[in-house]
Write a structure and sequence with these properties.
mainly alpha; Methane Monooxygenase Hydroxylase, Chain G, domain 1; 2 domains; Formin_Homology_Diaphanous_sf
Length: about 220
């Protein structure tokens, strides 16, 4: 009796590496494809895990590939397992944004706890800046000098300035280029307003707050 060898299934849409990674993922979790889809659709917190969602995001085919697989729904049984899984998951609308949202929900508390000390430092620093008499006097002095420098121009007698201007004090130089506005202000404070020079003592949390925020921005 003649025996016919079963023809091996070939990849139709996915590349070999993507298919292999998906196969490893599916082998690790050993869940029916429809169950994985339903967990994602229902955001089932009893069955959801950070590991499951992270691996889905990492190994999921691109949307164009999922869309192409969806067109092969009628040939489901002829496809390899990784592409069958792709067909099942392609029915979930906005799949990748949904997965990212679920992951954010799952890791939210941990992320908040990680940055809570930095948030507290920033909060304390803001209060210190608002309440610092020395810093307030320094701002008054900067405004006074700025109005003096702008006398006769359309910017004369300004009632305030953008706080970012403080970063430009060291860049504003005298006509002879031998001193900066920052040096001038420091000299005047030493001569007539020594109390202003002690304003950093009123800002205990500013340094740690600035480092913490820089780290948060770098990480995220």
């Amino acid at each position: 009796m003649q025996q016919f060898k079963k023809k091996a299934k070939e990849l139709r849409i996915l590349d070999a590496k993507t298919a292999q990674n998906l196969s490893i993922f599916l082998g690790s979790f050993r869940l029916p494809y429809e169950e994985i889809r339903d967990i994602v659709l229902e955001v089932d917190e009893e069955r959801l895990s950070e590991s499951l969602i992270q691996n889905l995001i990492k190994n999921l085919p691109e949307q164009k590939e999922l869309s192409a697989l969806a067109e092969l729904k009628g040939e489901y049984e002829e496809l390899v397992e990784s592409e069958q899984f792709g067909i099942v998951m392609s029915s979930v609308k906005l799949l990748r944004p949904r997965l990212n949202g679920i992951l954010f929900k799952l890791t939210f508390e941990e992320q908040v706890n990680n940055i809570r000390p930095d948030i507290m430092n920033v909060t304390f620093a803001c209060e210190e800046v608002k309440k610092s008499e020395g810093f307030s006097k320094l701002l008054e002095l900067v405004l006074l000098v700025g109005n003096y420098m702008n006398a006769g121009s359309r910017n004369a007698q300004t009632f305030g300035f953008n706080i970012s201007f403080l970063c430009k004090l060291r860049d504003t130089k005298s006509i002879g280029q031998n001193t900066t506005l920052l040096h001038f202000l420091a000299d005047k404070c030493e001569e007539n307003h020594e109390a202003i020079l002690r304003f950093p003592e009123e800002l205990d949390h500013v340094d740690s707050a600035s480092k913490g925020m820089s780290l948060c921005l770098y990480v995220h």
